[in-house]
Amino acid sequence: MIAALDLAAGRLHYRIRDRKRWREFLYFLKTLRRRWPNQRLYLICDNFSPHKHPEVRAWCAANQVELVFLPTYASWPNWIEAEFAAVRYFALNGTDHRTHAGQDAAIGNYIRWRNQRARPKSGFAINSKIRHPDYPFKVA
């Protein structure tokens, strides 16, 4: 599964493919571009190598898509990781799908159910001291 979380609407956009190479990722980016044609898109990505492929980077540069990479081993700040955990918990845990099609259908059913109840993602950790400009970051 390749997915993106729209923070403004709280909705998941996804595609299930047999493989997760740069070609599939680029195709997914093109579907996102079609969904939001006149906006600059910012996508937070982990350091999975297909995200950094030269053709992906070139297409992004030419199409107002900015890939923002998280530090290695720091996927936890990315809100979509919690959504992936929910997909595992609600669609896959305790199941024994006989086929990939059955598994894909379970994932799709959960995401459709989830998107019908989606709310914008905003105000995360409003009172956290790390959000204040005078927070003393420690750089190693």
From TrEMBL:
InterPro entries: RNaseH-like_sf, RNaseH_sf, Tc1-like_DDE_dom. Keywords: Endonuclease, Hydrolase, Nuclease. Residues 1-93 form the Tc1-like transposase DDE domain. GO terms for molecular function: endonuclease activity; nucleic acid binding. Pfam families: DDE_3. This is DDE superfamily endonuclease. It comes from Micromonospora avicenniae.
